[in-house]
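Renewal narrative, Specific Aim 1. Our central claim is that a sequence can be written position by position from structural information alone. The example that follows is taken directly from our test logs and has not been curated for this report. It begins with the structure tokens describing the chain, in the order in which they were read.
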């Protein structure tokens, strides 16, 4: 499947052409919002190193590979 969206293309070109970090970040934020709204892909994995940081999270086992078993953890109240 090819994602064809002229507005996304325009935002990509604008971000690539910008040398101002704030302007580039704003442009990429708009692009991110557009892609999330259009949902042309299913994002299965994003974080390469997930952590369970809250002391309320119990049973989380840090994975030794990319697979995270989310059937084990629970959150205490």
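The sequence written for that structure reads:
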């Amino acid at each position: 499947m090819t994602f064809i969206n002229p507005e996304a293309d325009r935002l990509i070109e604008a971000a690539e052409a910008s040398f101002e970090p704030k302007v580039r970040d704003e442009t990429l934020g708009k692009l991110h919002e557009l892609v999330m709204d259009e949902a042309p892909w299913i994002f299965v994995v994003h974080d390469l190193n997930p952590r369970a940081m809250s002391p309320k999270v119990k049973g989380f086992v840090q994975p030794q590979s990319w697979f995270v078993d989310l059937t084990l953890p629970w959150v205490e109240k």
